[in-house]
Amino acid sequence: MTTQSSITRTDPELAALLRAEERLQADTLRLIPSENYASAAVLEAGASVLQNKYSEGYPGRRYYEGQQNVDPVENLAINRAKSLFGAEHANVQPYSGSPANLAVYLAFARPGDTVLGMSLPMGGHLTHGWGVSATGRWFHGVQYGVNAKTGVVDLDEVRDLAVRERPRLIFCGGTAVPRTIDFAAFAEIAEEVDAVLVADIAHIAGLVAGGAHPSPLPYADVVTTTTHKTLRGPRGAMILTREEHAREVDRAVFPGLQGGPHNQTTAGIAVALHEAAQPAFRQYAHQVVANAAALARELLDRGYDLVSGGTDNHLVLIDLTNKDVPGKVAAKALDQAGVVLNHNTVPFDPRKPFDPSGIRLGTPALTSRGLTVDHMPAVADWIDRGVTAAHKGDEDALRRIRAEVRELMAAFPAPGLPTA
């Protein structure tokens, strides 16, 4: 297994960058909701000798020999995924979330078919039929949004669009959805129009696994997810399906879209799924939600405009219009202060996507470090002071926040990172 010392000997320039990234992840407050800390065990699996193996095909049906150990590794990941999520079938080979979603198109639709998904500016994902994505170019994408007053998905609009457009696929889920997804309601709509319901739970998979968010498995025909984010695994993906769809999904992944799986990632997924099956992970998932709710309340008390008025999960989306600070300006200032989040469009945003009105933040990573609701007033205070400093151009205030963040982070070591 490659070690830091061997990288240092072989490529000191890269080694220096890796050490710098370790320090950055250790002493900043990471609030990007799609980021987390993988455990040392997950990282070790990802750097294992499985990096050397090529394994086109599936367990017991490979195109290469020498799979005596690879097949059991993939079967372990498959069985753990099925057990953890209550799925009839699991494919753990997709390289990431977008290819996993593309495999769904290949399995269930043909170019030109209609797909109904959440609008990207409203919180959806590119691969749910948005125009700049291949899914919006090869298929007829129709988008639903959120209610202008509540900031929540308008299910009446979803049904009206579905009845009118008769989509082949309906996607639910997204990248900036702070509220509980009503999978049962989506399933009723999909059944009414004879559509395949796809639940994209990339952001909330860990919450689903930990019982902190309802599961789509009883309702959706197919479920896609990444394996990092709230699940705390490596950068990979999975597709969970009913047994009746297993063959078409597997064929869509391989040979439809990709060649050999990344076996080292599969091993990391297996480790992460094992960790997610432990009682401590269930506590973690619920703490993520509790922390997000507490942080949302603190931000509301400080006069922030939260999309949908709060959160049910790990994610908070803030419209900074009333603070007179563009989202990108605020995000860059907070980055200087060691509070790492991202600028983001908000529903009905009048600004351009690369210079939007909002910021998006979440609690998965800080919860992995052991922070609780007791720390959320301090986190909200740093965000508030950082946004105010961004408005005033106060560099000294950002430096003061940076020192405070570094001090708190030192008291809560990050999983998987080297200790000083």
From TrEMBL:
Query: What superkingdom does the record give?
Result: Bacteria
One GO term describing the cellular component: cytosol
> What sections of the sequence does the record tag as coiled-coil?
none
Q: Of which family is this protein a member?
A: Belongs to the SHMT family.
- The Serine hydroxymethyltransferase-like domain covers 8-383
What cofactors does the UniProt entry give for this protein? pyridoxal 5'-phosphate
Please give the catalytic activity noted in the UniProt record. (6R)-5,10-methylene-5,6,7,8-tetrahydrofolate + glycine + H2O = (6S)-5,6,7,8-tetrahydrofolate + L-serine
Kindly list the biological process annotations in GO that this record carries.
Answer: glycine biosynthetic process from serine; methylation; tetrahydrofolate interconversion
Q: Which NCBIfam families match?
A: PRK00011.1
Primary enzyme class: transferase
Task: Report the principal subcellular site.
Answer: cytoplasm
Q: Where is this site: Plays an important role in substrate specificity?
A: 228
Annotated function: Catalyzes the reversible interconversion of serine and glycine with tetrahydrofolate (THF) serving as the one-carbon carrier. This reaction serves as the major source of one-carbon groups required for the biosynthesis of purines, thymidylate, methionine, and other important biomolecules. Also exhibits THF-independent aldolase activity toward beta-hydroxyamino acids, producing glycine and aldehydes, via a retro-aldol mechanism. Thus, is able to catalyze the cleavage of L-allo-threonine.
Subcellular localization, per the record? Cytoplasm
Which keywords has UniProt assigned to this entry? Answer: Amino-acid biosynthesis, Cytoplasm, Methyltransferase, One-carbon metabolism, Pyridoxal phosphate, Transferase
The protein in question is named Serine hydroxymethyltransferase
MF terms per GO, please? glycine hydroxymethyltransferase activity; methyltransferase activity; protein homodimerization activity; pyridoxal phosphate binding
Q: Which residues carry this modification: N6-(pyridoxal phosphate)lysine?
A: 229
